[in-house]
Write a structure and sequence with these properties.
Layout: H1 2-19, H2 36-43, E1 58-59, H3 65-83, H4 86-95, H5 99-123, H6 133-159, H7 165-190, E2 193-194, H8 197-210
Antiparallel strand pairs: 1-2
């Protein structure tokens, strides 16, 4: 029984070849033996130790709400700095705008603008023209600035009783440009793809391999 079992095990590779499970020429390269088990090992090759599968780059935020909050914080911070200037004080005095409610309204407006911009940038990244995330975010910010000026600033200044509405419209447009610039840059930086640790060390390994 033992000799018959051993003979069956020895004939198993030949049987596999006869049935057609393992082709005789599969994986055969120059200078390699043509044994059946070596042919199977040639088919299942182990990749070299120097090559690893590349992981896809990770984005800084898993959704649009993280860059939206960061952009809103940048918008509101820029608004706070602007509100401390003499020009902003004259603007509030001319239009009778109280200081604290202005800060609250700026925070609400920042959330709306940043949320819309971040949502479009994250969900439709490939459709937004631009070379990088920052340029794409700034382009969307320009569009938001135009809409904000046409739909909000122009009607509010025309309905106001201010002496020179064109002057204060220009001042408000400059304020909005600075705030949206801070918002766009922040969202662009937050949504920019981040390299993994393996990607950071890969150039060093390539230089070592070349040397």
């Amino acid at each position: 029984m033992t000799s018959q079992a051993a003979g069956r095990h020895q004939d198993l590779p030949t049987a596999l070849l006869d049935v057609g499970w393992v082709p005789q020429d599969a994986g055969r390269g120059p200078g390699r033996a043509s044994g059946p088990w070596e042919l199977v090992m040639d088919i299942v090759e182990v990749p070299p130790s120097g090559t690893r599968s590349r992981r896809p780059t990770r984005s800084a935020g898993t959704g649009w709400w993280v860059p939206a909050l960061a952009g809103a914080a940048a918008f509101w911070s820029a608004n706070l700095v602007i509100s401390m200037t003499p020009i902003a004080a004259g603007y509030r005095s001319a239009l009778s705008i109280p200081y604290v409610p202005m800060l609250v309204e700026a925070a609400a407006g920042a959330l709306v603008v940043a949320g819309a911009l971040a949502f479009v940038l994250v969900r439709y990244r490939e459709r937004v023209p631009g070379a990088g995330q920052v340029s794409k975010a700034l382009l969307l910010g320009v569009g938001a600035l135009v809409l904000l000026t046409v739909l909000v600033e122009v009607p509010s200044k025309l309905r106001s009783d201010v002496a020179d509405p064109g002057h204060w419209l220009l001042v408000a447009s400059v304020f909005n440009a600075v705030r949206i610039l801070a918002l766009g840059v922040t969202i662009g930086l937050v949504t920019r793809p981040r390299r993994t640790r393996g990607d950071r060390h890969r150039p060093g390994r390539r230089r070592e391999a070349e040397s």
